[in-house]
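FORM 12-B: Structure-to-Sequence Request
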């Protein structure tokens, strides 16, 4: 199923094992790129990045991961393996050829696991504020509490931008873009309990073995004020000596929303230097 929105790409829907998956296909002549958003996010977060990559000659697709956006809201299976299988299904269904897999936060983690489990599928990996992780059992419920505390419905989009951005309009606009207007207000397109379940495996173990198994070129883009610490990055570089990486000053976790132009420049430079 497809539908188009002027200037916003074409929405494509597919079903895998009974779970609806929605993608935003920006077109372009190739090489292929697949973008994966973070927890509680949506494919529209990548709009600015997608436009720039498409205009630079890439064919770009952004996926609403299961439990998010226009995809299945309450899938029974929110395991890491299910997220990975969705990526593989999208690549196959849309005929993407060895795409560049780029993801932010949980989406970066999904991209990492996909690259590890399916060598040869991606031509390269871009992790934006993402890594093999730290086992932190309390984090899922902490995040769930933050999501449940949203004062929904927001009475207006502007109110949502102000609350979700907490003073940073670019971040607020990005998050507000994922809301649905209905019943006189603006509502999230995810359920907090699904988000908590989606983090279950990440809270119980790390994924260093999977990181070491990635065999394609990789780029890590961090925010100076983000969540990936120096020790974690150093270990990533130790296990993968060919890792390309940099930290953008004055930026937090939502690098793709705060500095889309710089992020795209970094990605294109990485692609050029790696000969991809």
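FORM 12-B RESPONSE
SEQUENCE OUT:
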């Amino acid at each position: 199923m497809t539908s188009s929105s002027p200037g916003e790409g074409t929405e494509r829907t597919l079903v895998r094992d009974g779970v609806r998956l929605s993608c935003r296909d920006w077109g372009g002549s190739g090489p292929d790129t697949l973008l994966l958003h973070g927890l509680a996010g949506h494919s529209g977060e990548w709009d600015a990045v997608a436009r720039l990559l498409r205009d630079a000659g890439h064919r770009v697709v952004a996926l609403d991961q299961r439990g998010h956006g226009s995809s299945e809201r309450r899938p029974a299976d929110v395991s890491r393996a299910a997220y990975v299988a969705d990526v593989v299904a999208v690549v196959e269904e849309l005929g993407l050829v060895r795409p560049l897999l780029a993801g932010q936060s949980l989406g970066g983690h999904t991209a990492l696991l996909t690259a590890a489990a399916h060598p040869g599928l991606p031509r390269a990996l871009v992790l934006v504020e993402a890594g093999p992780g730290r086992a932190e059992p309390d984090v899922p419920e902490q995040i769930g509490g933050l999501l449940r505390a949203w004062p929904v419905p927001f009475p207006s989009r502007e109110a949502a931008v102000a609350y979700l951005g907490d003073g940073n309009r670019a971040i607020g606009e990005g998050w507000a873009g994922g809301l649905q207007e209905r019943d006189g207000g603006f509502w999230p397109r995810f359920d907090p309990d699904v988000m908590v379940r989606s983090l279950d495996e990440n809270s119980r173990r790390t994924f260093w073995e999977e990181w070491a198994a990635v065999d394609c070129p990789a780029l890590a883009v961090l925010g100076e004020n983000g969540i990936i610490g120096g020790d974690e990055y150093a270990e990533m570089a130790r296990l993968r000596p060919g890792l390309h990486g940099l930290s953008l000053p004055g930026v937090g976790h939502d690098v793709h929303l705060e500095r889309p132009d710089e992020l795209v420049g970094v990605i294109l430079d990485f692609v050029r230097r790696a000969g991809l």
